[in-house]
Amino acid sequence: MAAKWIEALTGSLEQKKQYKQAVARIEALPTPYRETAKALNRYLMYYGGVTDGDTIVTMFLDHADLWERAAVDETPVRDIVADDPVEFAESFARAYAGAQWIDKERARLTAAIDAAVGDASGGEPS
Asked: Cβ atoms within 10 A of the Cβ of 58, count?
C-alpha cells in the first residue's frame, strides 16, 4: 500500500532503478566514451522534455547501449557524434519524442488564442 502511495508522488520506483543502472553503465565506460556519454546525458535531460517515464528510461538505456557498443568496437567518438554534437543529441532525443511537457502549453496557447479571437469577433472564431 505504501509503495503505491510513494510511486504516485515520486513516479515508478522500477523506472528510477533502471535509470540508475543506465547511469552506472555509463560510469563504467572507458575514456573518452564515459565523458562523452555523461555530457550527452546531461544535455538530453535538459533538451529532451519528455514527460513519460517509460520513454525516458528507454532513451537512457538505449544511450548506454550505444556507448557500450562503441567502446567495445573502439569506434571513435567523432564517428558517432560527427562535427556537431548538439545535432547528434537533438536527433537522438527526437527519436524518442513522445508526450513532452510543452505539449500541454502548446494546447493551452492555441485554446487561448482561439478564445481571444472568438471573443473579439462576437463569439465566433475567425
From this structure: 17
